[in-house]
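Ticket closed. Logging final result for Methionine aminopeptidase.
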Amino acid sequence: MIELKTAAEIDRMHVTGRFVAEVLTEVGELADVGVNLMDLEHHARGMIKRRGAESCYWDYAPSFGKGPFRNVICLSVNDAVLHGLPHSYVLRDGDNVTADLAVTIDGWAADSARTVIVGTPAPADERIIRATEEALEAAIAAAVVGNRLGDISAAIGAVAADYGYPVNTQFGGHGIGRTMHEDLHVPNRGKAGHGLKLRPGLTLALEPWFAATTDHIVFDPDGWTIRSADGSRTAHSEHTVAVTEEGPVVLTRREGEKKG
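Final structure:
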């Protein structure tokens, strides 16, 4: 069932979104050469506990996972792009790290992700990150009343095509509100003018992610971490967005964040 949120409910989601943005900002600043992924996990845990928020990932057990997820943040490195299970790994110069976080505060969820480069950036990595950020901004711009869900997917797919990146449609964006995952799957490629008509109060997590040279994925033995099938580098950008009469409202925008 698709639940349209009131203005007051969107405001409550915005409270959560601002906190998610704060955590991702700090995690991005802490990701440096010599830092262990578990240090980032525990930093996020501490922030969540102090805020009185609840992790949407802790005990998360969807059909594709291997047992309940027992961490509060997804941390994916290099060719890993989604659902990276935090583990003891010391970051190296040039690593790409994707941090994906979803929490609830007072019963309302927000979800966001960003990819950062540790140490010395490679131009190819900067390029794929920039592509996901531009695709996300294009998706947000398409999230207006009267458009259709396919317009959002088509906007993402168009940016990927411009950059020459293939698109996997198995995992994409989704509805969000009282829980992390609500009805509506938002593929990262689609047909403009097709799909559900966008109405005020619709809240979506939009999340373009690309691998440099493949649209195929593989799972790690941990049952969670998703990688590009050919080992090529990846990137992932995500925001929680509300469709309103006044236009799209980004609920997880980070302070000082550059638009794509």
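The mean pLDDT is 96. No further action required.
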